[in-house]
Amino acid sequence: MRVDFHTHIIPEDLPDFTQKYGQDRWPLMHRTCACGANIMVGGKVFREVTDQVWSPEKRIYDMDREGVDIQVISPIPVTFSYWAPADAALAMSRIQNDFISETVKGNPTRFIGLGTVPLQDAQTAIKEMDRCVHELNLHGIEIGTNVNGNNLDSPELIEFFEMAEKWEVPLFIHPWETMARDRTPRHNFMYTIGMPSETALAAASLIWSGIMEKFPKLKVSFAHGGGSFPYILPRLDKGWEVWPHLRLTTHPPSHYARNFYFDSLNYDPLNIKYLIDRFGHDRIMQGSDYPFLLREIPPGKVIDDALDLSEEQKKLILGENALRFLNVKGKKNKNEGNARDTRRETAKSGN
Fold this sequence. Notes:
Elements: E1 3-9, H1 17-21, E2 28-33, E3 36-41, E4 44-50, H2 56-66, E5 70-75, H3 86-106, E6 111-113, H4 122-134, E7 141-144, E8 146-147, E9 150-151, H5 158-166, E10 171-174, H6 189-208, H7 211-214, E11 220-222, H8 229-242, H9 253-257, E12 261-263, H10 269-279, E13 284-285, H11 301-304, H12 311-325, H13 338-349
Parallel strand pairs: 1-5, 5-6, 7-10, 10-11, 11-12, 12-13
Antiparallel strand pairs: 2-3, 3-4, 8-9
């Protein structure tokens, strides 16, 4: 079974929140044709998208063609709206969470859903997390790497993480509102440099602050292979060693990083090998970033190309790790045997 842990979705008919709540930072879907649209922010094109991003039928067609059995679907980070009043951001969250829940209900063998919550207010976020996992049957929450410039070690978020651990809610941390945005507009460096750096800062903040020590059973995963975090972890350990007056944890950062999970979206088998050597093959989950331009095609290619992985390790990374991380039991694929093998061979050949 192949599970694509990292994919994004948005309602086709997302309401115009600017008319109701004011401000021009709300994302708006502007249709450009029958199978395409622009996500608009502040009157400018934020991202061009196709019906892949809202149509379950189109997604399933692509999944069958590319050999994916299950997609884990989560919101597009631009919709987090942490900058907005909490009640308005909650309305945005609920629309997406309801849409994702209905998409899963309509296709329960093909999709697993993650929700979103308004992190700018912890109590509101906790209530919506409760609704997501206990009413809508979503299997986790996607959150951003910072909340209005405050790192994830902000004291205001402690209760949110406490409840996520108590309710065993997996968290998928995705970069948004990245650092150094004034220095990265050229060359699309926001995506290739800003996002990996932003993810590293989020991971380091959770560790250095003591949050991961305080909540050892908290289930946390990071997009894009953890960004640059895995590669600067030894430097974080060195800082912990030489600055004892800054220590807030009993052990160095690498001790707590063992509890993290990462998707496999780093494109290179050498990087995958590094992730596995440092964190273990049971902590890596195949993820493609479907349906955006930087996605891996076909999903899982970097795992397939990793020659030194055993078939059992590949089996875990390509699907079973994600199901375990998301507390999914007994998920079965309706497509078995030769049909699935044919899809995979077709995806590899590019036809």
